[in-house]
């Protein structure tokens, strides 16, 4: 399909998946839920994700209620929050449902002294002043410590103490060969890591992998496999001069990363039982050009599809304007990834997009705060303080149904934190505690 051809939009709504057959003989008979054995009901109850679902289950069936299952201890379902943790790991974070900013309550010194370079699966990704990498759940206070970042080969990074925590980075040449004698670039902590994600939730998977995209070192990424590696390992990607616009983990044990300008994509396959990582490349077709996107995001939909979101026009002056387009990527014929426009992301779902931390969220529990089939993103805000102009970030809302910005008044939201708190990210609260031990590396 030509890149300038626009395919017919598809829908990810579950209503489109209903069986359209008229053969009554194929109908599935209704199950007698009340007659399920206690152990099976217990398995169902244990997998419910919030207190509301638990109450609905036990109140819907008198026999289930009489089984007297222990209270699961769920905390109330929480909406996505805007996280301001770039300079201070305790926050603040802004809850759109309440219009109030909060701070996380913890006293871990290793966390308080760290720089937050990302958020994944509800965990903060932190770089300490001693070069250690931490993953920290701000709700449960679980902490997983990974090796120091300069354990990567000496030809890539150095961490001289006399530079007060800054790094010496040795850029590679056009042939992807790291040259130890090349002139080093001095990089501050907050400028060292471009993007990073976890392959899975550390509370559920003790063998998770972290992938890091570094600034100033092209075509080489770093990864660490929990339980396998003792140091950070470089991996060379198969596409030269690939600029990572965004990356996203998926449920099928893969991490995808995209170059929004070249419309190219990489897939890091982590499904090998031997924990080997393979990298494959895709060329994305079906995305109209021009215009070239101002920003590109990747995320997984509620039904497991890989979505690509292009911000294809952004006017940063007042009044602010932007157009966002969603595509579902068909990966059935590699190395081609066919982009199919999406106009409906599923009943009750909304997209929350940011670099390295986008997600598809069921917002049906928050009808007064969020609207289905909308995209929530962070946009520039131009303002004045003490007679001087400045640029910060605030919340933008885009309606997929109408194809235009919605409920965007051009003003800051009530209760929005101080304007110059750095980069804003989405955080999806994770209330699961770690159930495995010996998590700190020697």
Automatic annotation (TrEMBL):
InterPro entries: F-box_BR-signaling, KIB1-4_b-propeller
Domain KIB1-4 beta-propeller: 108-378
A Pfam family the protein falls into: Beta-prop_KIB1-4
Protein name: Uncharacterized protein LOC109703781
């Amino acid at each position: 399909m030509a890149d300038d051809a626009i395919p017919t939009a598809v829908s990810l709504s579950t209503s489109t998946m209903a069986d359209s057959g008229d053969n009554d003989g194929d109908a599935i008979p209704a199950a007698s839920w009340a007659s399920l054995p206690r152990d099976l009901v217990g398995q169902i109850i244990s997998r419910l994700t919030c207190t509301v679902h638990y109450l609905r289950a036990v109140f819907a069936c008198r026999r289930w209620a009489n089984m007297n299952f222990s209270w699961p201890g769920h905390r109330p379902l929480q909406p996505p929050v805007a996280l301001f943790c770039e300079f201070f790991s305790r926050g603040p974070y802004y809850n759109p449902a309440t219009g109030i900013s909060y701070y996380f309550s913890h006293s871990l010194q290793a966390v308080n002294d760290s720089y937050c370079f990302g958020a994944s699966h509800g965990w903060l990704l932190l770089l300490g002043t001693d070069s250690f990498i931490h993953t920290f759940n701000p709700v449960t206070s679980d902490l997983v410590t990974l090796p120091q970042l300069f354990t990567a080969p000496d030809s890539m990074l150095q961490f001289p103490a006399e530079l007060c925590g800054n790094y010496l980075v040795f850029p590679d040449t056009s042939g992807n060969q790291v040259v130890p004698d090349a002139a080093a670039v001095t990089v501050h902590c907050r400028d060292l890591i471009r993007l990073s994600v976890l392959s899975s939730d550390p509370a559920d998977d003790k063998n998770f992998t972290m992938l890091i995209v570094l600034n100033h070192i092209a075509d080489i990424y770093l990864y660490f496999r929990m339980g396998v590696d003792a140091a950070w390992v470089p991996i060379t990607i198969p596409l030269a001069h690939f600029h990572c616009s965004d990356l996203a983990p998926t449920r099928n044990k893969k991490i995808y990363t995209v170059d929004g300008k070249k419309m190219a994509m990489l897939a890091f396959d982590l499904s090998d039982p031997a924990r080997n990582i393979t990298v494959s490349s895709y060329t994305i077709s079906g995305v109209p050009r021009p215009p070239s996107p101002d920003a590109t995001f990747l995320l997984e939909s509620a039904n497991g599809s890989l979505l690509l979101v292009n911000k294809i026009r952004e006017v940063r002056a007042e009044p602010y304007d932007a157009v966002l387009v969603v595509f579902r990527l068909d990966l059935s014929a590699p190395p081609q990834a066919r982009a199919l426009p999406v106009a409906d992301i599923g009943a009750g779902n909304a997209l929350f997009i940011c670099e390295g931390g986008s997600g598809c969220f069921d917002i049906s529990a928050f009808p007064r705060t969020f609207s289905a089939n909308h995209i929530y993103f962070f946009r520039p805000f131009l303002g004045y303080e003490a007679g001087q102009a400045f640029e910060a970030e605030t919340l933008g809302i885009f309606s997929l149904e109408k194809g235009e910005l919605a409920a965007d008044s051009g003003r800051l939201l009530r209760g929005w934190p101080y304007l110059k708190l750095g980069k804003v990210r989405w955080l999806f609260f994770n209330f699961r505690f770690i159930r495995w031990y010996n998590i700190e590396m020697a």
